[in-house]
Amino acid sequence: MKIGIDAIAFDVAKLFLPIKTLAEARNIEPEKLEKGLGLLKMTLPDVHQDTVVFGANALTKLIHDNTINLSEIARIYVGTESAIDSSKPIASFLANLMEQKFGENLLSECDVVDFTFACIGGVDAMQNCIDFVRLNPTKKAIVVTTDIAKYDLNSSGEYTQGAGALAILIASNPRIIAFENQWATSTKGVFDFFKPYRTLSKEAITGNSNNENWFDNLEAEIEIHKDQPVFEGQYSNQCYMDRTRNAYFSFKKIKNTSETIYNSWESIVMHLPYAFQGRRMLSEIYALDAKNAMVSENDNTTDYQNKLKEISKTDDYKSFVTQKLQPAELASSIIGNLYTGSIFMGLLSTLGHFYDTKKEVSGKKFGFLAYGSGSKSKVFEGTIQDEWKLAIAKVNLFETLENSNEIGFDVYEKLHKKALKVSVLKPKKEWILERIENQNPNLIGARYYKWID
């Protein structure tokens, strides 16, 4: 029984800031970001958009474009690290909105839940849904990844921002890709990137230790949450490499082979916080798993790192990158980081590129190297199915991305600081965040959405 992705849809923020504009404002040489990291644009949410909006838009497209009968959907599982509530999952919002649009009680027997493990949460959700469909082959499940990658102004992560969602239909006998039932995992609990709750004292806010009237019902410390993470870029990159390397070689053990695994993959799809992250991280695996290993883990640290740098500059490695990695980078360059959706956008970018260039990949294997900070990697593979072109014909990835709207640096900063109260673009044929309740004490903070024709 083949299990995998039968259909896919996406929704990405329609506003973008050119990376060159950001670089010049931050006194960074544009080529460092454009040619060094592969960044061209970063997408940004409008005033009326949040992770529920992006997820609902992607899910609505998936249902509409593939004529999905919602009564056949047993699960809607969401991968996200941009939750809007510490209790109510985004998945429950999505179920409610789909019933608003497609019919009451259509999802009343559907299981919904969110998965959180930084950028790998969507893969965790998909693996769970694949296992479910494998046991229940007449059932179908949907995975939604939705995130807003936001970093502090002037931080080293600022130029990697992005926003959007993907919705993926998991079914037996899929049209796009069927996954093998072999998954390798590497996990280690570290603080390479995280979003902690933080506190401010009353005195820090008011300037004195006396209670203000509006503080009477609050604790001595006010707990806050920021969308922006705490991270250490160099350490996070090392964790990415360590987890992915260990998962890759665990995958070799599971496959019980001494052959070079990546040689069997037509394309390699990796988590891409920025477009060229994969090619920078994969040189180690490329060198270690070559027929005649180019490096040894017994080398001293300095020699080891120097050898990897030299290998990454060779024509052979550059050719390897162009063939196996570059197709997945194309969308990332003009979107930015989608966190949980990054690896799935990489798959869609690869397929979209092959679709546009008329390359036939039916029957070919794709390798997937997923990563989530905190930290965990999963390595798995899948085989492209005969109907993949038909299944993605309506997606129009690159055509849609070409129609995004450029904004200036001043508008970008106002959006980032949440200083704008009116949307930059007038919503059309999409979900919007209509209001957040602030009067009814039993519904304080409740978020309400509606569809705009």
Q: How does this model look, in words?
A:
The protein is α+β, with helices and mostly antiparallel strands and 453 residues long. 35% of the residues lie in helices and 24% in strands. It has helices at 19-25, 30-34, 51-65, 90-102, 121-135, 202-206, 233-255, 277-281, 283-288, 301-312, 315-324, 326-335, 342-356, 388-392, 397-402, 409-416; strands at residues 3-12, 15-18, 41-44, 73-79, 111-115, 140-149, 162-172, 177-179, 184-187, 193-194, 197-201, 221-225, 230-231, 267-270, 365-372, 376-384, 405-406, 430-436, 447-452. Strands 1, 4, 5, 6, 7, 8, 9, 14, 15 and 16 form a 10-stranded mixed beta sheet that branches. The protein has a 3-stranded mixed beta sheet with strand order 3-2-17. Strand 4 (73-79), helix 4 (90-102) and strand 5 (111-115) form a beta-alpha-beta unit. Helix 3 (51-65) packs across helix 4 (90-102). It starts with a strand and ends with a strand. The model has no long low-confidence stretch (mean pLDDT 95).
